[in-house]
Design brief:
The complex is a heterotrimer of chains A (289), B (316) and C (462). By secondary structure, chain B is mainly α. Chain B has one domain (58-69, 78-315): MetI-like (MetI-like fold). Chain B has helices at residues 32-35, 39-59, 80-86, 89-123, 126-141, 144-155, 160-167, 175-178, 180-205, 209-217, 222-250, 254-259, 271-281, 285-309. Chain C contains 21 helices and 16 strands. In chain C, the strands form 4 sheets. In chain C, strands 1, 2, 3, 4, 13, 14 and 15 form a 7-stranded mixed beta sheet that branches. A 4-stranded mixed beta sheet of chain C has the order 6-9-5-10. Chain C has a 3-stranded mixed beta sheet with strand order 7-8-16, with helices on one face. The chains are: A mainly alpha (289), B mainly alpha (316), C alpha/beta (462). Chain B: Residues 1-23 are annotated as: Disordered.
Chain lengths: 289, 316, 462
């Protein structure tokens, strides 16, 4: 299966007129779709530089940084973003550490419960987290974890763990065992082997998994919306909602500016990762026959 | 974790698996000490995933509430919550809307558009394809709340869509109020098409070029080639993709919550929003949990189907 | 191309075994122990609603806490502004009060949610505290009652009350050729005025009535109940102690709403569904003369007060007031509803005595006068009402205070918030045209029966 796969179909050299027509028509079609997708994105960019922005996309009469200046303060922007960073950064660390540790035995040893355990993990990746938020909320009230950043971090971390384990195990499987064996014979323990041999070899894979995890958490609204209550603990996802319900009809430009601040980290991560993020998805579900 | 990212498979994980596919690792039996690194993950999963699920099995049979009766002391009510759900028109309204939402936005919208984009991407001029797919991916990478707000402004009274309709001389639309489920479905297509596109584009890339070429030499036209060669080869990818986007769409909350709040008059209230409203706006935690449990069951069934569709390699 | 691999079905039995194995739930509580309660006993946390651009509450709290902490070294006041619209505020507040970790020590509550929160055990009685607080007797009996639970205990200190009427824009009226002063004697006359504005050269939207779920309690109280209580029907029969279903008045009130939309006598539906519309009305539509008539509360002029974000000094000349007439002008001719807000102490307050001490500071005579003026509210206190500054602060205070004499109150019952939600839903299906008034009435009946039980409802005799 693996062998039969060619990553990119080689482009036929020398295009005939027929190919050219297909190419032009396809380019045209994809442009139409792309432009349709672009309009809302264009709105947020243009509106953020337009202090008299309306709901419709339009070229600013006067370009201004006024919207950014208006939200350039701790209350509106910095604290929510810092909270997002603490929440998502913390949860990403929790997830990745637990995932790497868990993936190692999965990848390296054989045991009777391995397959059912792995199946359970994969099964859990499909469960709608939305559906367990109400019991999680009630449970957190019971055990006094509600409105606790630590509690939210642990839950968010746990909720993306199944998928992270699955990903990490895949990357780890690709690390040849032979190299490790020498480390083992030198008497290194599991943790040291992991740290000095396995992790360096799967660095790029881990980066992809970490970024997936982080990006997913960064966009998550429901979890912090349910688990965090105090205004000074709320991450950007939730304050954007309160801001929009509070001023959404009056301060479009500021909302657009805040949306941009809030989206910037994930967009930047995507740009840094470039297509390799896409490639990460290249093998996405069901690609294999 | 937002469900959008939850379907990627590590490419690297597969690369070279042929080489290292030796069953015997370093000491191939798992001992207690060797299992120790699995402990943090096990604790987290048991406490925060299995725990709440089990707790919901209890909660769904009680009258636990945030305010009024059932808040001060909770009592068992047996199957009352489920009976109430099944007898409640609003619950069925939510079920129907969930089906509509999933069908329009995932099964039809994201799936077909994703496939179309993937096919076009292969044929279009490279630079054009790159720019356009980047836009589509940008829509997908944005946080859910931002996407919701952007699409709200797009469909709003006097929003971008109205402006465009005005330019071509068409009357204003009122989708957010007259057919909000359509508006949120479009929003979900906008947000999710990139995922299917990436899945299909990867799957198309895996089809050997010579298969297509030999068919072309046999005189099969592009449409015929697509139906009789490409599509059958893509079938497993389509099945898995459908399961994944269905699962993702089932748990969409923020997008709808921001755009319409489930309204007006419950016309875009899918199950997650109904569950939230009952549990929080109306304070009926027990009843809300019963609804959540039903949603979880639907998700679990879909997840099991997905599990069966997954290639065997991934399960070893 | 090899044939696609058929995944073998997951071993169902093994799967079940794992699922059962995971049933060993870990004691989460041990985890919670690490985070523990992090509340500082010397801090008094004060929760209040912060929504829109108004900051009167924050200004007042800062002022009082500054002087309070100066007098009480070692105590600090932490403000907990809850940024949420109408209904969300109450829910969020309840969520916060439900846990000792998150509960505030002093909470600003609307009287309509109070009994529900008392029923849920979120609030504590302050009987002992008011016994030693001389100003309690200055509070109007109706307000005292509103903060007394079904068990006879007092659960809060009432601060303000409010009444509702029709605000009209004199410029719009002049343009449409409508009289000033305007004294509509029936619903029909209100609608006629609205039609006149619609058909006039004025660009203004004729009439706005808060409706639908997005407006929360505003829709129920400022909107629906201002209509219903003018029909002779009622929500709750005090004598039989049952909720009234299927009433003609209920249906007529919904029909009134339907008329507004059918005849385009109001703002577009999209604006009605915007939870933030009140802000738009106060800050833009009225000052710009783009709305003719608004059915709203006594306090709204605070958005236009000097120093407020939307200061509009001309409001007192521009805005006229008319009593809301009963349906056909039947006795007593006009209708208003009164509500009110006050300070309460949650069950999980760290130090009840300290919390009440701070409430005392908030309710001290001088501050109460200032607060009433800043907030443009109607005081519930005789001593405040006697203050000259209070009497002269606004041209409207006399009008609205007078309305109190005939004011109606919402059913003071724990189930009211849920019934109120059902009302908002009935309004919403009618205004969106999803159902006609009769259908909405029937659906309301089903819902209320579900909320309070069949033994607590009765059909109105028609």
């Amino acid at each position: 299966m693996t062998a039969s796969r060619t990553p990119v179909r080689p482009r036929r050299s020398g295009k005939g007129p027929r190919e050219r027509t297909v190419e032009t028509a396809s380019s045209l079609a994809i442009t139409v779709i792309g432009v349709a997708f672009l309009i809302p994105l264009l709105w947020v960019v243009l509106a953020s530089f337009d202090t008299s922005a309306t709901l419709a996309v339009s070229w600013p009469q006067q370009w201004s940084l006024g919207n950014f200046a208006a939200i350039w303060n701790t209350e509106t922007t910095f604290r929510p973003l810092a909270n997002s960073l603490i929440l998502c950064g913390g949860a990403t660390i929790v997830t990745m550490v637990a995932a790497v540790l868990c993936a190692y035995p999965f990848s390296r040893y054989r045991f009777a419960a391995k397959r059912p355990l792995l199946l359970t993990v994969i099964f859990a990746t499909g469960l709608p987290i939305t559906a367990i938020m109400i019991p999680v909320y009630s449970l957190f009230v019971q055990v006094n974890l509600i409105d606790s950043m630590v509690g939210a971090i642990l839950f968010l971390g746990a909720s993306s763990l199944p998928y992270a384990i699955f990903l990490t195990k895949g990357f780890m499987d690709a690390v040849p065992v032979e190299i490790e064996e020498s480390a083992w014979t030198e008497g290194a323990g599991v943790l040291r082997t992991l740290r000095s041999v396995v992790i360096p070899l799967m660095r790029s894979g881990l980066a992809v998994a970490t970024i997936f995890t982080f990006v997913g958490m960064w966009g998550n609204f429901f979890v912090p919306f349910m688990l965090l209550l105090s205004p000074d603990q709320l991450p950007a996802a939730v304050t954007l909602y309160t801001f929009s319900s509070q001023y959404g009809q009056v301060a479009y430009g500021q909302l657009a500016a805040f949306s941009i601040f809030y989206s910037l980290p994930v967009v930047a991560l995507y740009l840094i990762m470039g297509r390799s993020l896409g490639t990460g998805f290249a093998a996405a579900g069901g690609v294999k026959g | 974790m937002s469900t959008t990212a939850s379907a990627a498979r590590p490419e690297a994980g597969r690369r070279g698996t042929g080489r290292s596919r030796r069953r015997a690792g370093i000491g191939d039996r798992l001992s207690l000490v060797r299992a120790l690194p699995m402990l943090p993950a096990a604790i987290l999963l048991l406490a925060f995933m299995a725990g709440p699920i089990l707790y919901s099995l209890y909660l769904a049979f009680t009258d636990k509430a945030i305010r009024g009766e059932g808040a001060a002391d909770t009592s068992f009510v047996g199957l009352d919550n489920f009976a109430r759900a099944l007898g409640d028109g609003d619950f069925w309204n939510a079920v129907v809307l969930t089906i509509v939402f999933t069908t329009i936005s995932a099964v039809i919208g994201q799936n077909v558009l994703g496939m179309t984009l993937a096919l076009l991407m292969e044929r279009a001029h490279r630079a054009v394809a790159f720019v356009m797919t980047s836009i589509v991916i940008a829509a997908w990478i944005l946080p859910e709340v931002v996407a919701g707000y952007l699409l709200y402004t797009f469909f709003a009274d006097g929003g971008s869509l109205d402006a465009i309709l005005g330019v071509v001389g068409l009357p204003k639309q009122t989708l957010l109020f007259s057919a909000p489920i359509i508006a949120v479905s479009f929003a979900n297509i906008w947000r999710g098409a990139a995922f299917s596109m990436l899945v299909y584009s990867a799957a198309l890339g895996a089809i050997p070029g010579d298969v297509q070429e030999s068919a072309a030499m046999d005189g099969a036209g592009p449409v015929r080639r697509f139906w009789s060669i490409t599509l059958p080869l893509l079938r497993p990818a389509i099945a898995t993709n459908l399961m994944l986007i269905t699962l993702q769409t089932l748990s969409v909350f923020g997008l709808i919550f921001i755009m319409t709040g489930g309204g007006p008059a419950r016309k875009s209230q899918t199950l997650p929003l109904y569950m939230y409203e009952q549990a929080f706006s109306y304070g009926q935690l027990g009843y809300g949990t019963a609804v959540a449990l039903i949603l979880l069951l639907i998700g679990a069934v879909a997840s099991l189907v997905y599990l069966r569709l997954l290639p065997e390699e991934d399960k070893r | 191309m090899p044939a696609p691999m058929r995944p073998s079905p997951p071993g169902r039995r093994t799967f079940l075994r794992i699922a059962a194995g995971s049933a060993v739930v870990l004691p989460l509580a041990a985890l919670a122990g690490c985070t523990g309660a992090d509340r500082d006993p010397g801090t008094i946390r004060v929760a209040y609603q912060q929504f829109g651009s108004g900051t009167q509450m924050e200004t007042m709290l800062r002022r009082v806490s500054e002087s309070y902490t100066a007098q009480n070294p070692g105590v600090s006041i932490e403000l907990v502004p809850i940024v949420a619209a109408e209904n969300d505020y109450f829910t969020k507040n309840e969520l916060l009060m439900s846990s000792p970790r998150t509960s505030a020590d002093v909470v600003y509550e609307d009287s309509f949610i109070l009994l529900s929160d008392v029923g849920a055990g979120y609030l504590q009685s302050i009987d002992d505290q008011i016994a030693g607080w001389p100003l309690w007797d200055e509070i109007a009996p109706a307000s005292q009652e509103a903060f007394t639970g079904e068990d006879g205990h007092v659960y809060g200190i009432p601060v303000s009350t409010d009444t509702r009427a029709l605000w009209y824009h004199r410029d719009v009226f002049a343009e449409a050729g409508l009289p000033d002063p305007w004294e509509p004697a029936s619903w029909e006359e209100v609608l006629e005025a609205a039609r006149t504005i619609r058909d006039s050269a004025s660009e203004a939207a004729p009439l706005f009535v808060f409706s639908g779920k997005a407006q929360g309690e505003k829709a129920s109280m400022q909107g629906f109940e201002m209509l219903l209580y003018g029909t002779g029907s009622t929500l709750y029969d005090e004598e039989t102690r049952r909720w009234v279903l299927g009433s003609q008045g209920f249906e007529d009130s919904l029909a009134f709403l339907r008329t507004l939309f059918d005849e385009e006598l109001t703002l577009p539906l999209s604006q009605h569904l915007d939870p933030n519309i009140s802000e738009t009305i106060y800050s833009t539509l009225l000052p710009e003369g783009r709305l003719g008539i608004l059915l709203d509360g006594s306090w709204i002029s605070r958005s236009w007060a000097e120093g407020a974000a939307g200061a509009w000094p001309e409001w007192s000349e521009t805005m006229g007031l008319a009593k809301m007439p009963t349906q056909h002008g039947q006795d007593p001719g006009s209708v208003t509803l009164a509500g009110g807000w006050g300070w309460t102490i949650p069950q999980y307050a760290t130090d009840k005595e300290a919390a009440f001490d701070f409430i005392e500071a908030l309710c001290a005579p001088e501050n109460s006068v200032l607060r009433a003026i800043e907030d443009n509210h109607i005081t519930v206190r005789a001593d405040v009402a006697a203050d000259e500054r209070y009497l002269g602060y606004s041209p409207t205070v006399g009008f609205f205070t007078e309305l109190l004499e005939t004011a109606r109150y919402r059913p003071a019952l724990p189930a009211y918030p849920e019934v109120s939600a059902a009302i908002q839903e009935a309004m919403e299906v009618v205004m969106t045209g999803t159902a006609d008034p009769a259908q909405a009435l029937a659906a309301y009946g089903d819902q209320v029966t579900g909320i309070v039980g069949a033994e607590n409802v009765q059909e109105e005799e028609r």
